[in-house]
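Because showing beats explaining, we think one record worth quoting, sequence and backbone structure tokens together, and here it is:
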Amino acid sequence: MTRLHELYSDQGQSPWIDNLNRPGIEGGGLAHLVEEGIRGVTSNPTIFEKAMTGSDAYDEQFADLVGRGNVEAAFWDMAIDDVTGACGVLRAVHDQSGGTDGFVSLEVSPALASDTAGTVEAARSLHRRISLPNLMVKIPATEEGVPAIREMIAEGRNINVTLIFSLPRYEAVIEAYLTGLERLAAAGGDLSAVHSVASFFVSRVDTEVDRRLGKLGESGTGLVGKAAVAQARLAYETFRRSFSGPRWDALAARGANVQRPLWASTSTKNPAYPDLLYVDSLIGPDTVNTMPDATVEAFLDHGQLARTVDHDLDGARAHLERLAEVGVDMADVARVLEDEGVASFSKSFEQLLQALTDKANGLRAGGASGV
């Protein structure tokens, strides 16, 4: 038994991996990670960009697809094949967990981040094309994304809500989930078949807050490197409060599952901080932590196994209050990070499509060089 197994069995936290690529699926790497205790997979446009431009594993399929359609359609066909393959690898975990784990996440196009109707249609399309119980479609928690999340839950679809950076937006996401379940219940739907996670981003919060503290001359005051964990712990408090009481009890009686917090962006960006700062500090039941490969390896080697996610909540509140006192506006931090997150994924998607376009042009010209 590895530390990842113990993280789940002893602490109730599901370790997922934030990476998806064809060599890992076809070569057994993902299956090995599952054997070591990984219980789910997340992806995003940046991950697909690295996978498809850094490997020749897609070349043969891409050459065939692009000869019959356009480049973006070819991308979605390849991505869907990857997700379908990964769902197969994780299906046993899904079945053994009673449908709680074993999910593979695929994100709608980042170009739809401000388009509610477009997001709804794209999410429906992905669920139709990958008609598997352990698919989760990722929808960003932008203002326009929240109504799409509500609609998808009301239709009984599994959704991974991504790019959450603030407590108020997290509360809006929970409300969308609960309202969606209530609509599904009113329509006579099966609430027990719906699963969702709310991806609360962590390390990027410290990166932005620390930058602002530096500009304010507060870098040496003991405030740096603590905002992300403090905010995430208060998010967990919000989760526990929201999924209790009469409203939730009525849904739970119909078989509803809680929408688990998922800690995302959990690799340490600042080398001065412990490599597992955003894993060891956020361990607790009914949560998920999705980690990149290096963070998974680090946790297998020296991860801590103790409940920490609700440690010193008064201290977490006091820390955020102190940040406000010195001039760090957490609402503005969240706005900037959301804008940057959407822009980063959009840039990766555009770069990927350009690389694939260049490759298609080379193929049409008779060249077969790799991307």
